[in-house]
Amino acid sequence: MAGMLLLSSILKSFIKRPTELTVREGFLTVTLSWVILSLFGSIPFMVSGFIPSFTDAFFETMSGFTTTGASILTDIEALPKSLLLWRDMTQWLGGMGVIALAVAIFPYLGVGGFQLFKAEVPGPIKDRISPRISETARILWMVYLVFTIAQTILLMIGGLSFFESLCTTFGTLATGGFSPRNSSIAAYSSPYIHYIVTLFMFIAGVNFSLHYWALKGKLGRYFKNSEFRFFGMIICVALGLIMVARWMGGEIFSEGLFRDSLFQTVSIVTTTGFVTQDYEQWPFVTHIILLALMFIGGCTSSTGGGIKNVRVLVLLKEMGSELKKLFHPHGIFPVRVGDKPVPENVVSNVVVFIALYMLIFLFGVMAMAGLGLDIDTSIGAVAATLGNVGPGIGTVGPVDNYSHIPILGKWILSFLMMTGRLEIFTVLVIFTRHFWD
């Protein structure tokens, strides 16, 4: 920390601060920030000797700051508490960084889903970027800290030590999934702990602007929000299907079956990645459901990754609109989110985003398969890293890790983590010719 402070002071004294940020500089700053954070954040792992490989240390740190939760560690509990705390803190800091980007920076750059929820949920500020950005950051940090303190206290009431409560909270609210235990949340047999973590994973997967209004006493904002209702519906449908599939697979319906199904549904759709059971032992159809949830992800302006619920909602409504036009060619059927129409350019942005997301996924799977991984592992690893989930399927499932992935594969997956976390456009635009013209 002292070295970083010294380096930043030197750079600040030699480099003049610009009066304003251009769009090109904004894209570059956001992307390079995550790379530089991961480069320097990996130093404690390498210096300590617990992760001597630079590739592995960078992978673990990028996984932390992007709140992915994919790990190369085979024995997490062997690490000293200092490294375990740093490991979880990277997620907590990254989670808040994602929210700040979504509300303050991405709208300025013209990316993200901000345009979709601004009309429905005016957040702490209504402008895309303004001098009130510091006030926005302060409000978001306040909400984040309130939930951090609340979950830590509730976990301690459940019998966890302060250290384990804090580390688990960091991994939960950031929807990161790093745990100080080898077996994740399965290490705690208490149903109370499972339900508390489930609740806060759900909270972290919801638009933080809604939490801001809720803390001001306006709870009705939740149910007036189309994305929140869609998010809840997705969880209920997926939970029902998983429970039925497990029951038809021979399991007896019980509170434990409900609790584990609920936990994994919320964990995967919010892209947290905590586990209480090895879901690869469940019927195959549940793997398909969980894989689909990895793509959907959390809500806009949450710490969750994935495509985001509001984009999926807009895509479904656009599909419905196009089907109506087949029967009424001259009709006008605008896509609406809530009670307001979504501009055509925003709908186009959503369609392109999802198309790019699926193309990157496809190329990622081919790249990983080309490195010798089986198809299940290739699909699971790419879906889990691009969606910032962590555990996937195959040999990177809930009881496995990423240590066996080839070196080149780890760099590819690290790139996918950052690309998925920074809303794709932010990273890809840097590789276009027009950016450098």
Structure description:
The protein is mainly alpha-helical. Helices cover 64% and strands 1% of the residues. A hairpin with a 2-residue loop joins strand 1 (336-337) and strand 2. Helix 2 (23-41) packs across helix 4 and helix 4 packs across helix 5.
Main attributes?
single chain; 64% helix
**What is the C-alpha radius of gyration, as a whole number of Å?**
21 Å
Tally the helices. 20
Distance from N terminus to C terminus (CA atoms, Å) equals 37 Å
Major sheet: arrangement of strands: 1-2
Helix content range of the residues, please?
A: 55-70%
Mean pLDDT: 88
What's the total number of strands?
2
**Strand residue content:** under 5%
Q: What would you call the shape?
A: globular
Task: Summarize the helices and strands and which ones pair or pack.
Layout: H1 2-14, H2 23-41, H3 43-48, H4 54-65, H5 81-109, H6 114-118, H7 133-157, H8 162-173, H9 191-204, H10 208-215, H11 220-224, H12 226-248, H13 255-269, H14 284-296, H15 309-327, E1 336-337, E2 340-341, H16 344-370, H17 375-386, H18 407-421, H19 425-428, H20 433-436
Summarize the structure.
The chain is 64% helix and 1% strand.
